[in-house]
Specification:
single chain; 213 residues; alpha+beta; Butyryl-CoA Dehydrogenase, subunit A, domain 3; 5-stranded antiparallel β-sheet; 5 helices; elongated
Length: 213
């Protein structure tokens, strides 16, 4: 019987971080709060806000001081009105989500090898977590690129023409990063930490440190 110590426990933590990162990445893709825009509406209307996401956007109209009306519009990758920066971020996040999922699955198989003692009977010193580490690092990079693309994109000077409006264009006079962008950033960091943990594993160290009973 093999008693797994700190080295294997670190890999379990890496798997947990990768799983959490993938869930957060998937969740952030569906949220509209990637970009929060404060709007200047014509005809003297009261101030409103728009939440712009990867796959949908919402406009929040303040009816009075205690209530508001929220109207959302879903758009697809093939929607011609979606700005180029959102299209690019859509691609990056979709690829990152798929790569992160594959990397997490690879980590499951690597952990299975550890617990079935296949590595103990293997003369190779190959790290079974290398593939998962590489995939998680690539997913982290793609998510960071999507976040940076969204963060540094210029406000539209022609109005948020791809959002629903009351027959009038909506013009943002200010905007800021939303909570979904923060969630995606945390996801990228967790993927990167997971990759670092996985790449640091060495089967030879495991053999030296783990006593056999």
């Amino acid at each position: 019987m093999v008693f797994f110590k700190k080295s294997t426990n670190h890999q379990i933590r890496g798997f947990a971080l990768a799983t959490i990162a993938w869930i957060m990445c998937s969740t952030s893709m569906g949220l509209p709060e990637w970009r929060v825009c404060y709007l200047e509406e014509p005809m003297g209307s009261s101030q409103s806000m728009a939440f712009v996401g990867m796959w949908r956007a919402c406009i929040c109209h303040h009816v009075d001081t205690s209530s508001h009306q929220r109207v959302c519009q879903h758009y697809t990758y093939h929607d011609g009105l979606v700005p180029l920066d959102i299209r690019l971020a859509q691609n990056l996040l979709l690829v990152a989500n798929i790569i992160g999922l594959v990397g997490t699955v690879c980590a499951v198989f690597a952990l299975q090898q550890l617990y079935t003692e296949e590595l103990e009977n293997n003369d190779d010193n190959d790290n079974p977590f290398v593939l998962s580490a590489v995939l998680n690092a690539v997913a982290s990079t793609f998510i960071f690129l999507a976040v940076m693309c969204n963060y540094f994109s210029e406000p539209s000077k022609e109005g948020l023409y791809f959002l629903p409006s009351s027959q009038m264009p909506l013009f943002p006079y200010a905007q800021r990063a939303g909570s979904a962008m923060g969630m995606a950033s945390i996801s990228a960091i967790l993927f990167l930490l997971s990759a670092i943990i996985f790449i640091s594993y060495s089967p030879s160290m495991e053999k030296e440190n783990l006593p056999l009973v």
